[in-house]
Each structure stands twice: as C-alpha cells, then as structure tokens.
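Entry 14. Ran structure prediction on the chain below.
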Amino acid sequence: MAAKDDDHHNHGSELSDIQLRVRALEPVLTDKGYVDPVAPDRIIEAYETKIGPHNGARAIAKAWADPAFKQALLADASAAVGTLGLVSRVGDHLVAVENTERVHNMIVCTLCSCYPWEVLGLPPVWYKSAPYRSRAVIDPRGVLADFGVTLAATTDIRVWDSTAETRFIVLPMRPAGTENWSEDRLATLVTRDCMIGTGLPRLPAQGAP
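Output, structure tokens:
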C-alpha cells in the first residue's frame, strides 16, 4: 500500500526522481556543512537575473543588427555566442533556428527538460510539463494558440526536440519599425518565449524608448 502511495505522489509531481532526491539531500548536506545554505539561492538568482534570458536577448539583438553575426549564429550557435563570452557549462551544442514568413520554429524536450540555460535562463514550469512536451509535437499550432500566437495557415511549424547533447534557440523575425535601433534597444524586444518559439518579440512600442 505504501508503494502505491509513493507512486501516486511521484506521478503528481512536476519534479523528476533525481530532482526529488536532490531536494531531500540538500538539507542533510547543509546540516553536515558540505553545502553553503545560500549557494543554491545565489545560483538560481544568477540564472534568473544575470545569465539568461538576458544573454539570449543580446545574441538575438546582435543577429538582427549584424548580418555577419547572424550568419555565424545560424552556422554554429555555440561558437557565435562564445564570441560574446557565453560558454555552456554542460557541454551541449547550441543550434539556432530562424523564423521566417514561411516557417515558425518551436522548441521542446519530449524526454525530460533539456534546455539551454546559458542563453535562456531557468526553464519555465510549463516547458517541463508533460502536456507541453506531448502536445508540442502532436498539435503545435494548438499549443501556440494557447500562448496567444496565431500564425497564417500557410506558415509551416517545425518542432525541434532538444537532447542532452543538442539544444536550440529560436531566432525570431525582427519586428518592423526597428530600423536604426541599437543592439541594446533591440534586446528589449526579445523575450524568453520568443526564443523558445511559443511567443513573438515585443512590438517596438513595448520596448525601450
């Protein structure tokens, strides 16, 4: 009976078995002095406020403003973002996929929640959820509609499945009316969701003046 209760509990949680074990071990290791109690919070804060998605926005803005960097990003995103001082800490290969009038790209990880933290920050809860991971593949247009994104019927939607080795970032279309904008100003239009493909960039009126 207890085993069944444990199974039910795990299936109702968004956390993986490994994440549950880490959560259980953390207070034990902290009590024994192996882990600085404030270190995990500092790491989370860094990813939320300093590392990404601000880094991804910088890369996208540069690609919009600099054709040579855009070519480099699409050819080898890992190397391109490396020139900005951004290096993956988990050794994954980053691939940039470009949105156009004819093609819209969306990212998912159907097996777990592989995600390019260095350029997108912490993954949102919905990205790790089973409904998103399954529906993004089966009904991507419906998922986009749930996020408020309506595309033309003629637009092809391509879904890219991340792995531990290969992760993706979407290069969204540059909003009209942003000619002569600086990279810093362009970066204010870039959102995490538009780099996942479940959103669009902000309109110029919504960016920095």
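The two ends are 61 Å apart (CA to CA). Will compare against last week's run tomorrow.
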